[in-house]
Amino acid sequence: MQSNGPLDILPLWGLFVAILLVVLLSIEGGFRLGKYRRSQSEQEQEAPVGAMVGATLGLLAFFLAFTFGMAAERFEVRKKVVLDEANAIGTTYLRAGMIPERREEIRALLRDYVDARLNAVQSGNVAEGIRRSENILDQLWVHAVVVGTQNPNSIVVGLFVQSLNEVIDLHTKRVTAGVRNRIPGAIWVALFAVGIVALATMGYHGGLAGTRRSFAVLPVAFAFSAVIVLIADLDRPLEGALKVSQQALIDVRQTMNVP
């Protein structure tokens, strides 16, 4: 059920290695081209090339900041939706205790619903978790229709139906934010294209200046690769070290235990 991104074919550690190699090859290729151009009779001036290097590196920094901001924003949205869903479920569970009919059946379904949400994240079987969650929501709505039809003028029933409707809306919002809203492939392509050009231009300037290869290239390559992997980690809801905590749902589930 998770929308696959263009970088999902590689694990995060494999992505780090691949990016590191691409960065080093880009710099080395630019360095050799610059060294070749220096050996020609018509030599380029270093000053204009240095200005172009600064411009391309600035553009790369802009793309990195833009992409990181996009991934971080999606991560924050996923955290907020989990909290909103936990609050909505807790409110619905409390209001279910005040409706005149089917309160125990509805509360049991709400407990199953939270279990399904937590199991989907913990097991990684998102498609099955979403299918089970939607099935439980359908059953809850059937009960809500029956209770609402039998008590059309009840304020308590109206409040219960309102909170249940919010739970249903948040289910769709969480699925969209959690597994489908990824960084577009075009952004990744543009980022890598600008990165390769900028780093190759940096290496070209070094070769044109006639300097030796510097070990400073390695920290640059590691730093760039680390930032890209961090962005990819933020963009993968179910993988990596940066995962949205489900503690809010766990806390709600503990309050729903049958005494």
Describe the protein's topology.
Layout: H1 12-39, H2 46-96, H3 103-123, H4 126-150, H5 155-180, H6 185-209, H7 217-235, H8 247-255
Helix pairs in contact: 1-6, 1-7, 2-3, 2-5, 2-6, 2-7, 2-8, 3-4, 3-8, 4-5
Question: Short summary of the structure?
Answer:
With 259 residues, the chain is mainly alpha-helical. The protein has helices at residues 12-39, 46-96, 103-123, 126-150, 155-180, 185-209, 217-235, 247-255.
Strand content: under 5%
Rg estimate, integer Å: 27 Å
The span between the termini is 36 Å
Report helical residue fraction. Answer: over 70%
Based on helices, strands and strand pairing, what is the structural class? mainly alpha
Number of helices: 8
* Integer average pLDDT: 85
Oligomer: single chain
- Count of DSSP strands: 0
Major sheet attributes:
none
Overall 3D geometry?
A: rod-shaped
Low-confidence stretches: none
**What is the chain-wise order of helices and strands?**
HHHHHHHH
Name the descriptors:
259 residues; mainly alpha; 0% strand; rod-shaped
Question: Describe it for me?
Answer:
The protein has 259 residues and is mostly helical. It is built from eight helices and no strands.
